[in-house]
Amino acid sequence: PTEELVTLMWSFVVSIYSIGGLLGSLSAGYLSVRFGRKKAMLLANIPALLSATLMGLSRLCGSFEMIITGRLFSGVCGGLALNIHLMYAGECAPRKLRGLIAITASTAIAIGKFVGFALGLREVLGADALWPILMAANALPALIQLLTLPFFPDSPRYLLIDKKDKEGCIKAVKQLWGDGDHVAEIDDMMAEQEAICGQKAKSVCDLFRDKAVRWQLITLFLVSSCMQLIGVNVV
């Protein structure tokens, strides 16, 4: 192929991940309510395993299209998993640990990027003969989650507010936090359930128009924007 075509192919390989991430992010809200946080996280492993299979076999099949498609599925998994993970982890954590637990997502992303850079060294998996294994490496965390997550309960908040299952909520709380006195936390969820009773789910446009969360939204936007400018994504 010509140099221009090679550049175009590489551009698709790199940028298609972000398009997949957008699709996954837009689907996360629906799936997390339709199937629950836990099942939605398990479903997010399907595009991860598909992407690993496609990219891992791309050299054997001699198809760069498989890499592009695999990157798309990988992006869908990233968009789904990041959003649903934050919901699930935050809702499963007791109030005093909620902020700390939510930060684990950022920590895991940083560790994942570091591991990716390390595995990509020529002395590890970056060699010409080993890059298909490197591109299929995301199957490992997906398989670990598929094997371990079924042993965890669903989000107590989801069970109480979305499923109206108070008994299931109490059982999940005891499994996650132990047999202590958690009446105050459950009462908070009950109060939230009553407050949002009869309200329709907010869209993205509703979120931008809601003055009650205006400053929180601006703060998150500024922090996320600054993260894109620190050089990690350029590397």
Automatic annotation (TrEMBL):
It comes from the Eukaryota. Keywords: Membrane, Sugar transport, Transmembrane, Transmembrane helix, Transport. Residues 1-235 form the Major facilitator superfamily (MFS) profile domain. It is a multi-pass membrane protein. One of its GO terms (cellular component) is plasma membrane. One of its GO terms (biological process) is D-glucose import. InterPro entries: GLUT, MFS_dom, MFS_sugar_transport-like, MFS_trans_sf, Sugar_transporter_CS. The chain crosses the membrane at residues 12-33, 40-60, 66-88, 100-121, 133-152. This is Solute carrier family 2, facilitated glucose transporter member 11.
